[in-house]
Each structure stands twice: as C-alpha cells, then as structure tokens.
C-alpha cells in the first residue's frame, strides 16, 4: 500500500513529462498531420538554450529559458517548415522520413557545436528538495505541463487563429478559398508546435541528460502518447500521458524498467483493439 | 509504334538479365573476398528492402519495425549455428565441461542447462523453417490484430516503431537466452563448411544473390497481378475496398506477412555472411535506415527498393571509410534532398529524366519518322 | 467586374482549358454550362487561383489577380463555393462560418444574414460539419461563401444533392443577391434554373467556349442541342 | 579519416619504411562520446613514438576506421583493416559487444587487437591484449573499499547488458562471502532516463551504499534524480565503475560530488609519466580536455605493443605475442606489466572521490599492481561463477 | 417468397440525435424503388445501415429473410448488396479499367488474384460500354471530372453484379442527357435485380420511378406511386416546396 502511494506522484510526474514532450505534437502531428521526428531535436535545442543562457542568468536559467527556448525551437521549426515540410502536406508518412533526416543532421550539428559529452544545466536552488517522494523539480514540471495544456487548449478552441489552424488541417483547398492565408497558418502552427518542444527541453534539463542525443530518448514515447490519446485530441493526450505515466511507474515498480517498456507496448496494442483510433477520436462520416 | 512498345517491354527483362549476370558472374570473379562479403551484406539488406517496398510502396503500410523480423530470422539461424558450434567443439578454456554443450555466452551468463526454447534449433530443418515461419507467424498475428481494428497510416508506423523498441529491450533483457547486447557471434561452420573459408563466403554470396533474384521476380509477379492492384486500392482507399467485397485486413496482413518473411530470410542469410546478429541491428534506427534506403531508391518500384538498399549500404561503407565524422550529415542531407527533390527516389528520377529527354526530342522529330528509325 | 482573357490551364502536362475569355459585369449573372468533364470546374478553379493559369489573364475589379493567391482574391471580394459539398468536417457548423468570417474580418451581421438565407442550418450550429447530410453540407458551403459578403459570387453546381424545396430557396436567394447588385458566376446543369436566373451564359466544350449569348438565346433549339450532345 | 597513401600489399610487414596500425573506435553514434577520446589518446601515442624515431626505425601510420557504435560494423571494419590494409596490429573497441564481435575476426586471421577498456572478464583470447582492468582489478577492490568503510547493505543498479550483469554476479558472491547484504538489484535499458521509480526503490530499501554499473547518459539522469530525492553522498555513497572525468561535467558536479568511483587511473594520479601524459594531451587537444582511465589504457596499449615489437624485432604476430609476456613499463597509472599467460595487465586499483572541481581525488589504492585474474580463479568464493 | 430487402423498426442514434427512428421498409425483388426526403431525413443513413457502415441502435435488416446484423461491410457485399456513395470515391491511382476490374473480381478465390490480369472480362467491357468511359479506360481515375467519377462509380457497381443495388444520388451533377441515360440504365437493370435509388431530382423521379418511399426526420412519411407521393400535401410541405410565383413547380 505504501509503495502504491509512493509511486503515485512518480507516475503522475512521468505523465507530466510525457505530456510536455507530446504537446507540441498536438500541433505538428495532430493539426498538420506532420510526423516530425525532429521534434526530439527541438527538445534538445530547448535544453541547450537553457545551457547557454546559464552564462547570463546563472541558476535562474531554467525560468528565463522557457520563453527563449520557445522562440529558438519555434524558429527552427519555422525554418524547417519553410524549407522542406511545406512540400509535403498531405503525405504524413513522407514527413516522417524527411524529418528523420533532419534530426540526424541536427544531432550531428549539436555534437559539433557543443561537443559530444553531456553538458550541465544547474537547477535553481529553490527547486532542490521535495515533499515525500515528489521532488520540487518534478512538481515544477507538473505545473508547467498543466499551464501549457491550458494555454494550448485556449489557443485551439478560443481563438480565431486556432480555428483557422483546424480549418487548414481539415480542408486546405477550401481554407484557401475561404480567405485563409494557409501558408501563414502553417508557419504559425509549426512555430508553436516546435516552440512547445523547446519548452519541454528546458524542463527536461532538470531531470535528464543534456546532450546531442537527448531527443532520441523521448521521441518514441511522445508519439505513443499521441497515438493512444487520439490524433489531435488534447484531452486524449492528457489522459494518455497520465495513463502511460502511471502504467510505466507501476509496471517498473513491480517488475523492472526493461519489462515495463515491453508491458507498456503490449498494453497499447491491446488498448488499440478496443479503441483503434485512440481514446478520443475526431470522426467524420466521409470515407477516407 | 509496335516496335517502340516492344522495345519498352523488352527493357525490363533486359535490365534484369544484365544485372543478374553482373551479380552472379562478374562480381564473384572481379571482387576480392572482403568486398564481395560487403556486397553480400548489402544484398541481404536489399531483400529486406524488397519487402518494405512491397508493404510500403505498394501497400502503404509504413513498417518501421522490419528489424524485428530480420532479427527473428537472424536469431533462428544464429541459434542453430551456435548449437552446432557448441556441440562440435570441446568447450574451450572457460567452461568446466560435462553435460549438454552450451553456447559460450550462456556459460558466462551463468545458464546451466540448455533452455527449452533453444533445443529444437539444433535441427537444421527446424531452424530453417523457423527463419521464415517465425516472422510470418508474428506478422500475421500482429497484422490481424491491428488491421482488423483499422489501425493504419501513421498509427501503424508508430506502432511498429514501438514494437522494434520493445523487441530490442526484450532481447537485451534476456541475456542468458539471447546473448544480450552482445548478440550471437563467433560462428565457425555452416552446414559443415568452414565459414572463414573464402570459397564458403563466395558460395554464400551466390546464394544471397539468387534468393534476392527469385524473391524479386516473385514480388514483381505479385505487384502486376490483380492482387497488386487490389493492394494499391487498399492503400488509397481502404474503406472503399470493403464495399467492393474484399477484406482489407486480410490483404494487408498477407502482404505484411510476406514482407516479414522476406526480412526473416534476409536475417538468416545475414548471419553467416557477417558473422554476428545482435540487437543493435534490429532496433528503431536500423529499421528506419532501411526504410530510408527504400525511399532513396524509389519506393514505388520494387527495383527502386533493391537499388536503394545497395546504394545506401555502399554509401555508408565508403563514406564512413573516408570521413567518419561527416557521415551523419551526409546521410541526413542526402535524405532531405532526395525526399524534397525526388520524392520518387532514384528510379523516379531516372524515369522523369528519360521522359524529359523524350519530350525534348519529340517535337524535333516527326512522329512517323520515329517509328521508322527504331524499326 | 471579372474579366478573363485567353485563359489556359490544366493538370501537369494535360491541358484542359484552351484560351477561355469571358467577363462578368457588375451586377450580372453569368452561367457556364457544358457536359461532364469539359472543364467547368477547372475554369472556376483557375479563376479563383486554386489552379495556376499557364497563360492568359484574370482581372477582378480592374486589378490583375492572375498571380494572386486564393486568399487575396477572397479579400478583394471574390467568393467561391467549390463543387461537391466542401466543408471543414471537424469544425462545427458555426465554426465553419466563423472561421471564414474571421479570415476576411467581416462583421458579425454577415453571419446572421447567411443563416437567414439557410434557416435550416440554425438548429445544426453545434453539430460537426462532417456529420451533416450531403444536402446540409452543401447549404453550409454556400452559407460559408456568403459570410464574406462578396462582390462576385462563384458557384459550382450549387443545387447538387439538394431537396427541391431548398433548391427553390437557393434559387430565390441567388435571385435576391443578384437583384441587390452582386455579380454571380454560376456553373449549373439544370437548364431551367439557368434559364430563369442568367443574364448571359456560355457553353464550354473540350476546354473551349463554343457558344455564348443572352438568356433568350438559350431557349433556342440549337443551343439546347449543343448541351444535349 | 586517414588511410595512408601506402601501397596495398604488405606494407605492414615491412619492406618500406612505414608500419600501418589500425585504430577502430566508434566515431559516430552513441558510443562516439567515449571512444573518440580513446582514439585521440592512441593517436597521441603514435605521434610521440614516431617523433622518437618510430618502431624498428619505421614510422607508424594509423589507419582510422569508424565502428559507428554498431557491433557488426566493428567486425566488418576489423576485417577490412586486416585483409585490405594489412595492418600490423589494431587498437580499438570499447563495449564488450564490439569486442565480442571482433574476436572471431582476429582469432581467425591470427591478427592482434589491443582492447583498452575495463570489462567483465571471463575471457582470454590469444589474439587480444587487454590493457584495461578485469574484474579483480576494479570491482573487487571497489568492494574491498566499501567493506573497509563499513558498508554492509548494498543496492545494485546497472544498465541491462553483459558487464553490469556479470559484475553484479561477482558482487553477490563477494557479499555472500563477506557478510554483506544485497538489498536490491535493478537493471534499466541502455539509454534509460527515467529514474523516478528506481530512486524510490533505492530510497525505500535504505542501503548503506549503492554499487552503480549504469552506462553513459543514464548516469546523468540517475544522479540528478537521486540528488533531487534528497540522497547525499555522506549517507548513501554511490560507487560507480563507469563514471570517469569525462562524464562528470555532463552529470553536473553538483549532483555527483562526494561519490566514490573505482578505476586504475585518474587525471590527478601522481606519477612522473602522468604529468607528461596530461601535459602532452592538453597541449595536443586543448587545455579544457580531461584525461581518463580508458584513454590512458589506450595510450598505454600503443606503447606496450611498440615495446613488444622492439623486443621481438619484427611486427609478426606470433613473435610479438611471445615477446610481450613480462614486458613492464612505467605508465601514467604506475607500473604496468603484461601477464604473458592471459594477456591482461598487472594494474594498481585506485578508489577516488569526485571533487567539486570535477576532478577525482584518489583516497585508496591497492598498494601494488594486482595480478590480472579474468576468471577469478584465485578467489575461492568466486568458484562456480565462471563455470555457471 | 420473402421480400429481398426488409427493414424492421430501424433506429440509429448519433450522440443522442435520432437520425433514423423506427423505419420499416419492404422492397420486393425486381423493384426500382426511389427513396426521397428532405436533406438530413436519413436516406444515406439508411443505406449505411443496410451496407454495414453504420450500426443501428435497434431494429434489423433482412436480406432475403437473412439478418444482416453484425456482418462486416465486405461480407454484406459478398451476399450481393452493392452501393454507390453520395460523394463518389474511386481509386485515383488505378486506371478506370482497373477500377472496374477490381469491382468485378471479388468473387474469385484470393489465390487466383495473384495471377496477372489478361484481357478484359465481359462484365468489365460491358460496364465500360454502359458508362461511356471506354475512351478513358486506360486513364487513371484521378483525372476524371466530378461527373465522370459518378459514372465510374455506377460502372463499378454494375461490374459487381449485385442482387441489390443501392445508389445514393447517382445523377447529381450530371447533364440532362446523362440523367436520361442513367434512368434508362437503372430501369433495365431493375428488370432482373433490385434497385434502390436516393434522388432529389423530381423530373428524374417522375420519369423513372414507380414506387417511392419518402423519409422525413428519420421516419417513413409516405409511400406509394410517384403521383400519390407528389400529391401528398405533407410531402409538398416538407420536401417539394412551392415557388413564390407558384407558376412552375420545381424540376418540371
Ligand atoms: N486532377 C486532375 N488531373 C488531371 N486531369 C484532370 C484532373 N481533374 C480533372 N481533370 C480532367 O480535366 C477535364 C475537365 O475537368 P473538370 O473537372 O473541369 O470538368 P467539369 O466540366 O467540371 O465536369 P463535371 O460536370 O463532371 O464537374 C476532365 O476531362 C478531367 O478528366
Ligand atoms: N455520425 C453522425 N453524427 C451526428 N449526426 C449525424 C451523423 N450522421 C448523420 N447525422 C445526421 O443524421 C441526419 C441524417 O443524415 P443523412 O445523411 O442520412 O441524410 P440524407 O437523408 O442522406 O440527406 P441528404 O439528402 O442531404 O444527403 C442528418 O441530420 C445528419 O446531420
Ligand atoms: Mg465540375
Ligand atoms: Mg444523403
């Protein structure tokens, strides 16, 4: 019982991490249908942003870096969208391979710029310590994830920009003849989606390694969250992230980390038997 | 006009014959053993690529977990070779001896008795059967589960990727059973022939090339058949296909299983050629690399898949010999360029170049004369 | 209002339109007719910038718009209802209308007006457009175009799949809009409807304008024959 | 990379005035981080030897290949070095898996490999020289140290692969023989970065010390998350055997300072040879660079081979093997002697504590070089480990 | 002998909205039945249920006395029920001929599909002829115009040779001449098979329909001959409507 209670905050905080890294995908994958394998490298870019800012801001880097990393990663996403991805709309599987190529290049670039070994981002002193099995830095990530979700939700559902984004995703041609500047919307979507990856990257410096391969550790999990949650569904992503987080933590507690990963995969396959399109499906009557 | 079409029709088999002659006769004579071994390795990958071309290019199933099936085939073969080696050699140095012969890694992993899973692999027939049957079985089960529930497109891709990740973790975790990260290595003989021998290696190469050729012809036949059209239809409109009276899940599962079987076979050939099978070969990255190779070659043509695998394999070897540090840049850049500038890959590029040439030539020559010239 | 000169376009290397010229004066309703596959949709798509013109010119309100992207043309006052019930399937009916309204920064009243034209959409406002019936989607599609309060309304077979009583309503709505001074470019297969509405018409065949004239001409046997072939 | 413009055949065996040697490490992929530094050290040694007149009057020409963190590639490149480049010997490898992949290639071609990293033992190939520590020169001394410190309850944490699993078997046998208790044994997949649950398990078990065989990036996540769970080095030291100077910066000195590590060499090791080595290394590659145990072992390998060649008077493999036994050199880590029987080195074990400046300070050593014992035949409590 | 199609008490509910509400419908063999009704009345939904695309909340559909409940789409097709879609869907990368050929081939055993197609089967040739697409046989279906696609769909349906044909607004977007061709085609098909057509074109209805069922808000509002139905004031009210000037009624 005690173990059960102790694992609960850990599971939720793993969920928060998953959610944070998957949120950006709600835009790029959920809205644009782009499977961005370079998402992990945008996360990495966010982490390195925090690392570089350290020289200016010292231990406050993690806070200051949040908006900066958003801008940096967002800008990278924007460039990627303009130079390559815009030729690929409507061909999600191709974007997967294209962006994988990009991710390889970005990793090598990071290696050349910052060196292969990991670097260190110092956490603010007030994030040391914690309550019970829940360290403050995990609490911080949890709160950050909540705030980001709220922001994303409001943006998608309460603003004209969000609505235009959905319109472009659903019917590009019609959007254009409805007066929507589809190019602008694409750019914005990509900027935000990638920017969110940057934010996640900053948060990850608190708990994980900061190095050129940082992104590769999270990318598969991030996509699993989106798949389990249902494409483009924010609520789905939240529930799936929490579910996977808890599943991960309890499976690891009662077996071991290797087996936990296998169990998670098996559960997802089983789950898709019941809910093939994920938890929350956006349906329509049209035949695909 | 007739002459033109006849010639065009001849071109396919013609190219095939030339390539076959090059691969089967010229290469074994011209290449030194080390290079021939490399070529054999690329051809193994080409077999996997052929399966990917079938499943993805024709069937729209982007499978990012082909390494799993490659691995199943490879391990089946590796287990057999290991057992042969263990029983033929008096266990060297380390082991205390006595009892049934154990593969070396089991000895240092503290396994005392041959696991039940291993025992039947001592039989070469069983091992060879499992090379194909294992992957096909798993692909069929997974395919039916997943396709019947209409999981497709990106979902399927991500799922297979996760499968590859989970499979590797499982393999690594069962060290006593699988050799862990090290995998299986240190093989001495294949069906009684010394693996280190150059002539064995040359024979292996010929076998690989023949298998690839036969599978290629088979796959082509499939693609050009009604089933191939059906497959394209499933790719482009799975839901509509149901209303034509076909079950898309069955169609997809069949093709997925075929591609898995090919990967398994390739894995089995790979083991004696390269001399090792390890989880590093089966994970997310190697699986993706093969898909990339298919895309580079041209996924919509089976020949493209094969070409892509060989070209990328060769590029990897030679680039990494020249400038190791830059290989990732090169691979990434090459890939971005191909995807943006030539989404149909090298084969597509060649086709459109030919078309462009023809288009430029056409206005200059009156139609009636073209026919005569060729005839 | 709209002036098209020597317009050519097509798909890849297959040319579909061969030097089409037409004009729509302010307040005029021009009807384009022709058999299946002659290039009517291609013509409208090219006028709206969905397809690029390979030759020729499109001018709207005295401005050369040949190279403008679609959304800029909308901003100038052109609205388009594409063929075949196009909507944003996962947005609600209201969302479909709102997104267009916001994109062209129109006043809220424009939305109310559009709903007045199609009162049957009112109870459906919250439903996802993708779940609507074919006819409901088509009504939504037209309403969506009206929200922009266009100066030129371009419609591709707007009555396709719509129940007779609403066809009448649509016809009356087009008539009203026309009467209020809106220019309309209409593709329509129903001869009777075209007859009642059009000031002028043109008949396409194989990417060429083969006939054009006033509504009165349309009643002539010869033109009828052209359409029947 | 550098294939020398030498003619194809038989340059290595002499004939002209150069000798080709192979260098085979991962220059790309996940292992590049570690292996590149070893390559650098080996190249430095070659340069130094060349400057001093070479070997047998011939200059050494390195042929560098990339193993790409991929085991079959190691086998492939090893084949290339031997068959195509005809190198006299090869220095290379880091992971056990890469060594296992190369082993049959070298054994069958009767060519030489010098392997520079501490490893799990239970191996002794006649065509490999092992210049890193085997288990009785690193793990057992580590345990001796913990025992001396009065640590009785241990928790074992490792990455899921051969070295940690073998190491932990030895640790368990040692613990059983020495009245120590193992409270838990956990493995995580390579590259794992989520240590919330594991930290929780460790904290709940309340061990006296943790024996850490995690690899690479996992160490970063583990130490960060351990730190934020409030674990301090005073109350629960974590003894690592795969964390060297290179890794400390990435983990963050904050997170790891005060924890012990077990190696045979530190940048701070106080020998005249080391002063020279560190200076030369920094001069060659930059003052910010640190030196570490595997680098030093790679550096040594080149010198030890050169010495054996000098003694044999030829680069011919069997002659070199025969000549190698008993060679003893003063190296940065102290006196290193080649054990002719199992081709491992006599090495001094050293325990260090990570300092706030990121360097490691030695706090304990074995006093004299320990005889290598890859099968732990000299340890009665370990009998049955090797045999299974 | 039981009627070929029998729908009993069929209800469909979407998120609380009743798209069909207790529909009963009986169609005899050899009938050409028209299904009309306002937009959103549930006509397409009814076809969706019969063909297995939508699961009903209650009620059932019988095909020649056999319940179709729980069968998957392709199984129902194999029992002899074919349909077209309101928005035509064809396989854009396959040629017109291949589209038709696939539609015709589903009864062959799976293994025989692995052989290459040789020549053009009679069924397919006939379908090509009937739909007037013979000239486009080797073009990919993706290049077809709206109306041409509509024809291809009809052709694929014919090539399937089903017992029961369900057509959802087959003549929408067709020119007058083509409507006539379609009408005659359907009449001839209905001689030995059963055809159910959803249509809004009253002119078309008047010329080719005998039996008409009117759906309204998910229920059957009226059933009978064209004249009866057109005369029904309720039908006029909800469906046909009247012009302001009252001079001409729609579609005539
Ligand atoms: N995407 C495309 N690619 C190639 N050719 C096309 C494409 N779309 C249409 N076509 C061809 O262009 C011609 C004109 O098509 P268009 O859609 O403009 O016809 P339409 O007059 O609108 O016909 P309908 O009345 O059936 O809607 C047709 O012959 C068609 O085959
Ligand atoms: N999945 C769904 N979710 C919610 N409502 C739905 C769904 N599918 C259909 N509807 C609603 O059910 C009603 C019936 O739709 P249906 O498509 O059957 O009408 P129809 O008679 O074919 O109309 P039309 O002639 O316009 O095509 C419509 O009001 C539609 O909005
Ligand atoms: Mg059209
Ligand atoms: Mg309908």
Topology:
The complex is a heteropentamer of chains A (288), B (375), C (229), D (388) and E (252).
Chain A: H1 2-31, H2 39-57, H3 61-83, H4 92-114, E1 130-131, E2 134-135, H5 136-158, H6 160-170, H7 172-177, H8 182-204, H9 214-229, H10 234-254, H11 257-274
Antiparallel strand pairs in A: 1-2
Chain C: E1 2-11, E2 14-24, E3 29-33, H1 40-48, E4 55-60, E5 63-64, H2 70-76, E6 78-81, H3 93-103, H4 108-117, H5 134-146, E7 152-156, H6 164-179, E8 183-187, H7 191-197, E9 200-205, E10 208-214, H8 215-218, H9 221-228
Parallel strand pairs in C: 3-8, 3-9, 6-7, 7-8
Antiparallel strand pairs in C: 1-2, 1-4, 4-5, 9-10
Helix pairs in contact in C: 3-5
Chain D: E1 18-25, H1 32-51, E2 59-66, H2 71-85, E3 90-92, H3 96-109, E4 113-115, E5 128-130, H4 135-148, E6 153-159, H5 162-177, E7 181-188, H6 196-205, E8 209-213, H7 217-228, E9 238-240, H8 245-251, H9 253-256, E10 260-263, H10 272-285, H11 293-312, H12 317-324, E11 328-331, E12 334-338, E13 345-346, E14 350-354, E15 360-365
Parallel strand pairs in D: 1-2, 1-3, 3-4, 4-5, 6-7, 6-8, 8-9
Antiparallel strand pairs in D: 10-14, 11-12, 12-13, 14-15
Helix pairs in contact in D: 1-11, 2-3, 4-5, 11-12
The complex binds adenosine-5'-triphosphate (2 copies) and magnesium ion (2 copies).
Please give the order of strands in the largest beta sheet of chain C.
6-7-8-3-9-10
Fraction of residues in helix of chain C: 25-40%
What's the helical proportion of residues of chain B? over 70%
Strand content of chain B: under 5%
Radius of gyration of chain C: 17 Å
Q: Largest beta sheet of chain B, briefly?
A: 2 strands, antiparallel
CATH class of chain C: Alpha Beta
Rg of chain B = 23 Å
Count of separate DSSP helical elements of chain C: 9
In short:
Chain E: One of its GO terms (cellular component) is plasma membrane. The complex is a heteropentamer of chains A (288), B (375), C (229), D (388) and E (252). Chain A has helices at 2-31, 39-57, 61-83, 92-114, 136-158, 160-170, 172-177, 182-204, 214-229, 234-254, 257-274, and strands at residues 130-131, 134-135.
Keywords:
heteropentamer; B: 375 residues; mainly alpha; two-stranded antiparallel ribbon; 15 helices; 4 strands; globular; disordered N terminus; C: 229 residues; alpha/beta; Rossmann fold; 6-stranded mixed sheet; 4-stranded antiparallel sheet; 9 helices; 37% helix; binds adenosine-5'-triphosphate; binds magnesium ion
Written description of the protein model:
The complex is a heteropentamer of chains A (288), B (375), C (229), D (388) and E (252). Chain A is 74% helix and 1% strand. With 288 residues, chain A is an all-alpha fold. Chain A has a two-stranded antiparallel ribbon. In chain A, helix 3 runs antiparallel to helix 8 (182-204). The longest helix of chain A is centred in the first third of the chain and has 30 residues, at 2-31. Chain A starts with a helix and ends in a 14-residue tail after the last helix. Chain B has helices at residues 2-30, 33-58, 66-88, 104-109, 124-148, 153-173, 175-178, 198-224, 226-242, 248-274, 284-297, 302-322, 327-341, 345-364, 367-374; strands spanning 184-185, 189-190, 193-194, 276-277. Chain D is an alpha/beta fold and 388 residues long. Chain D has helices spanning 32-51, 71-85, 96-109, 135-148, 162-177, 196-205, 217-228, 245-251, 253-256, 272-285, 293-312, 317-324, and strands at residues 18-25, 59-66, 90-92, 113-115, 128-130, 153-159, 181-188, 209-213, 238-240, 260-263, 328-331, 334-338, 345-346, 350-354, 360-365. In chain D, the strands form four sheets. A five-stranded parallel beta sheet of chain D has the order 2-1-3-4-5. A four-stranded parallel beta sheet of chain D has the order 7-6-8-9, sandwiched between helices. In chain D, helix 2 (71-85) runs parallel beside helix 3 (96-109). Chain D is globular. Chain E has 252 residues and is an alpha/beta fold. Chain E has a domain at 3-88 and 162-251: Rossmann fold (3-Layer(aba) Sandwich). The radius of gyration of chain E is 19 Å and the shape is globular. Chains in contact: A-B, A-C, A-D, B-D, B-E, C-E. The interface between A and C is medium-sized, with 23 and 30 residues.
């Amino acid at each position: 019982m005690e173990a059960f209670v102790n694992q609960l905050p850990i599971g939720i905080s793993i969920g928060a991490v998953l959610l944070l890294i998957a949120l950006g995908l709600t835009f790029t994958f959920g809205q644009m249908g782009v499977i961005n394998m370079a998402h992990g490298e945008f996360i990495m870019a966010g982490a390195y942003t925090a690392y570089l800012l350290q020289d200016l801001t010292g231990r406050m880097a993690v806070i200051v870096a949040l908006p900066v990393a958003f801008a940096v990663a967002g800008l990278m996403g924007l460039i990627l969208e303009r130079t390559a991805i815009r030729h690929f709309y409507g061909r999600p599987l191709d974007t997967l391979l294209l962006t994988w190529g990009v991710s390889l290049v970005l990793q090598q670039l990071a290696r050349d710029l910052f060196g292969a070994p990991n670097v260190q981002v110092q956490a603010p002193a007030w994030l040391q310590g914690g309550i019970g099995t829940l360290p403050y830095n995990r609490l911080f990530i949890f709160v950050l994830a909540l705030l980001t979700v709220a922001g994303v939700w409001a943006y998608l559902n309460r603003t004209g920009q969000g609505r235009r984004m959905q319109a472009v995703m659903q019917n590009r041609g019609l959007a254009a003849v409805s007066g929507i500047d589809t190019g602008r919307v694409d750019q914005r979507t990509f900027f935000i989606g990638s920017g969110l990856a940057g934010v996640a990257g900053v948060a990850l410096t608190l708990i994980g390694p900061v190095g050129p391969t940082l992104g590769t550790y999270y990318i598969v999990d991030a996509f699993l969250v989106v798949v389990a949650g249902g494409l483009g569904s924010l609520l789905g992503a939240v529930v799936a992230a929490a579910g996977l987080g808890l599943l991960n933590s309890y499976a690891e507690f009662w077996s071991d980390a290797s087996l936990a990963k296998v169990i998670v995969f098996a559960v997802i396959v089983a789950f898709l038997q019941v809910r093939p399109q994920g938890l929350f499906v956006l349906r329509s009557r049209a035949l695909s | 006009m007739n002459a033109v079409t006849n010639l065009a029709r001849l071109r396919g088999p013609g190219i095939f014959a030339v390539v076959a002659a090059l691969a089967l006769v010229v290469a074994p004579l011209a290449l030194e053993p080390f290079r021939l071994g490399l070529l054999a390795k690329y051809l193994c990958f080409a077999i996997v690529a052929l399966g990917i071309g079938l499943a993805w290019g024709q069937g729209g199933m982007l499978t990012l977990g082909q390494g799993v099936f490659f691995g199943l085939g490879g391990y089946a073969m590796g287990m057999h070779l290991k057992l042969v080696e263990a029983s033929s050699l008096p266990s060297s140095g380390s082991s205390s001896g006595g009892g049934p012969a154990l593969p070396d890694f089991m000895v240092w992993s503290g396994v005392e008795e041959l696991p039940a899973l291993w025992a039947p692999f001592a039989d070469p027939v069983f091992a060879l059967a499992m090379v194909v049957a294992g992957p096909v079985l798993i692909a069929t089960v997974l395919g039916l589960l997943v396709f019947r529930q209409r999981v497709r497109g990106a979902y399927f891709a991500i799922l297979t990727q996760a499968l590859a990740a989970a499979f590797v973790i499982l393999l690594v975790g069962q060290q006593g059973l699988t050799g862990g990260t090290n995998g299986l290595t240190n093989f001495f003989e294949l069906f009684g022939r010394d693996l280190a021998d150059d002539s064995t290696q040359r024979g292996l190469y010929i076998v690989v090339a023949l298998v690839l050729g036969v599978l290629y012809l088979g796959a082509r036949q499939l693609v050009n058949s009604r089933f191939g059209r059906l497959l394209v239809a499933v790719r482009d409109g799975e839901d509509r296909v149901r209303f034509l009276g076909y079950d898309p899940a069955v169609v997809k599962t069949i093709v997925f299983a075929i591609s898995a079987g090919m990967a398994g076979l390739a894995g089995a050939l790979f083991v004696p050629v390269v001399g090792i099978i390890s989880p590093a070969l089966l994970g997310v990255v190697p699986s993706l690399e093969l898909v990339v190779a298919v895309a580079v070659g041209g996924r919509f043509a089976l020949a493209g898949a094969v070409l892509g695998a060989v070209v990328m394999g060769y590029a990897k070897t030679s680039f990494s010999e020249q400038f190791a540090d830059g290989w990732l840049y090169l691979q990434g850049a090459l890939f971005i360029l191909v995807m943006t500038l030539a989404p149909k890959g090298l084969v597509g590029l060649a086709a459109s170049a030919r078309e462009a040439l023809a288009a430029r030539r056409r206005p200059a020559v009156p139609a009636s004369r073209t026919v005569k010239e060729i005839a | 209002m709209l002036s098209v000169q020597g317009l050519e376009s097509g798909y890849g290397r297959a040319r579909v339109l061969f030097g089409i010229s037409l004009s729509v004066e302010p307040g005029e309703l021009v009807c384009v007719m022709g058999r299946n596959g002659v290039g009517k949709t291609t013509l409208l798509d090219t006028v709206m910038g969905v397809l690029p013109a390979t030759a020729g010119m499109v001018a709207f309100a005295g401005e050369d718009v040949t190279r403008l992207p679609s959304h800029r043309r909308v901003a100038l006052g052109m609205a388009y209802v594409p063929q075949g019930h196009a909507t944003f399937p996962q947005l609600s009916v209201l969302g479909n209308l709102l997104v267009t309204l916001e994109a062209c920064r129109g006043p809220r009243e424009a939305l109310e007006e559009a709903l007045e034209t199609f009162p049957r959409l009112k109870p459906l406002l919250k439903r996802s457009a993708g779940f609507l019936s074919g006819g409901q989607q088509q009504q939504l599609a037209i309403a969506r175009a009206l929200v922009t309060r266009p100066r030129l309304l371009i419609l591709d077979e707007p009555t396709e799949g719509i129940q007779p009583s609403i066809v009448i309503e649509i016809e009356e709505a087009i008539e009203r809009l026309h009467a209020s001074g809106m220019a309309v470019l209409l593709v329509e297969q129903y001869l009777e409807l075209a007859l009642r509405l059009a000031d002028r018409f043109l008949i396409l065949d194989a990417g060429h304008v083969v006939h054009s004239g006033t509504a009165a001409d349309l009643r002539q046997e010869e033109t009828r024959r052209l359409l029947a072939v | 990379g550098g294939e020398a413009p030498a003619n194809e055949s038989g340059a290595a065996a002499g004939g002209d005035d150069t000798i080709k040697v192979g260098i085979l490490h991962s220059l790309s992929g996940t292992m590049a981080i570690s292996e590149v530094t070893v390559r650098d050290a080996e190249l430095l040694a070659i340069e130094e030897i060349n400057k001093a007149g070479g070997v047998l009057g011939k200059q050494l020409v390195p042929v560098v290949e990339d193993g790409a963190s991929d085991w079959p590639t190691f086998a492939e490149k090893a084949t290339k070095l031997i068959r195509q480049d005809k190198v006299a010997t090869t220095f290379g490898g880091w992971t056990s898996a890469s060594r296992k992949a190369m082993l049959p290639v070298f054994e069958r071609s009767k060519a030489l490999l010098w392997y520079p990293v501490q490893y799990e033992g239970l191996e002794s190939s006649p065509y490999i020289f092992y210049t890193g520590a085997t288990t009785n020169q690193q793990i057992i001394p580590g345990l001796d140290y913990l025992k001396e410190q009065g640590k009785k309850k241990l928790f074992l944490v490792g990455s899921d692969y051969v070295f940690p699993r073998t190491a932990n078997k030895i640790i368990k046998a040692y613990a059983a023989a020495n009245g120590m208790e193992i409270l838990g044994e956990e493995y995580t997949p390579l590259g794992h970065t989520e240590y919330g649950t594991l930290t929780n398990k460790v904290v709940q078990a309340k061990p006296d010390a943790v024996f850490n065989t995690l690899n690479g990036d996992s160490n970063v996540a583990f130490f960060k998350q351990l730190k934020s769970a409030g674990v301090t080095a005073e109350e629960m030291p974590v003894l690592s055997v795969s964390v060297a100077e290179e890794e400390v910066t990435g983990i963050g000195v904050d997170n790891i300072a005060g924890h012990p590590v077990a190696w045979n060499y530190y940048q701070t090791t106080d020998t005249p040879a080391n002063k020279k080595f560190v200076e030369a290394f920094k001069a060659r590659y930059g003052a910010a660079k640190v030196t570490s145990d595997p680098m030093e072992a790679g550096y040594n390998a080149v010198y030890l081979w050169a010495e054996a060649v000098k003694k044999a008077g030829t680069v011919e493999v069997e002659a070199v093997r025969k000549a190698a036994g008993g060679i003893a050199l003063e190296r940065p880590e102290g006196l290193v002697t080649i054990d002719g029987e199992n081709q491992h080195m006599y090495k001094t074990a050293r325990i260090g504590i990570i300092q706030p400046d990121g360097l490691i300070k030695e706090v304990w050593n074995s006093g004299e070089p320990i005889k290598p014992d890859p099968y732990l035949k000299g340890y009665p409590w370990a009998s049955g480990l090797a045999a299974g | 002998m039981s009627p070929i199609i029998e729908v009993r008490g069929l209800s469909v509910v979407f998120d609380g909205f009743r798209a069909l509400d207790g529909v009963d419908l009986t169609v005899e063999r050899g009938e050409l039945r028209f299904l009309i009704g306002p937009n959103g009345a549930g006509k397409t939904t009814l076809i969706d249920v019969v063909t297995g695309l939508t699961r009903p909340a209650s009620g059932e559909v019988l095909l020649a006395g056999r319940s179709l409940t729980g069968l998957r789409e392709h199984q129902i097709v194999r029992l002899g029920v074919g349909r077209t879609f309101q928005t035509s869907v064809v396989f854009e990368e396959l040629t017109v001929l291949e589209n038709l050929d696939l539609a015709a081939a589903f009864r062959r055993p799976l293994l025989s599909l692995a052989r290459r197609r040789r020549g053009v089967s009679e069924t397919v040739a006939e379908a090509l002829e009937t739909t007037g697409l013979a000239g486009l046989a080797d073009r990919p279906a993706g290049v077809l115009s709206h109306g041409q696609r509509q024809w291809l769909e009809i052709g694929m349906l014919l090539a399937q040779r089903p017992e029961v044909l369900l057509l959802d607004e087959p003549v929408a977007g067709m020119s007058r001449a083509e409507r006539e061709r379609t009408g005659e085609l359907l009449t001839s098909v209905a001689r030995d098979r059963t055809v159910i057509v959803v249509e809004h074109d009253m002119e078309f209805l008047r010329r080719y329909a005998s039996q008409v069922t009117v759906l309204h808000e998910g229920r059957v509002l009226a059933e009978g001959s064209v004249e009866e139905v057109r005369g029904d004031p309720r039908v006029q009210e909800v469906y046909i409507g009247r012009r302001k000037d009252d001079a001409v009624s729609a579609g005539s």
